[in-house]
Design goal:
Blueprint lengths: L1 H24 L2 H34 L2
């Protein structure tokens, strides 16, 4: 699960690179792509981490 979070955070970094390149070239499509990658990756990382936390709590309680 940690690997999935790392991949998603890496993808967010790639989205930030697209955002910066797009701003430098005044490319609206590149900026939009970067924003979407950042948002999607961070939401995905949050969901995966939340599911992992909930699973750990429930498993630890023995339910």
């Amino acid at each position: 699960m940690a690997g999935v979070v790392l991949v998603l955070l890496g993808r967010a970094i790639l989205g930030a690179v697209h955002l910066k390149v797009g701003e430098g070239q005044h490319d609206v499509a590149q900026v939009s792509k970067g924003k979407k990658e950042i948002a999607g990756s961070l939401v995905g990382a949050f969901v995966v981490a939340s599911i992992g936390t909930i699973f750990t709590i429930v498993y630890g309680m023995g339910i």
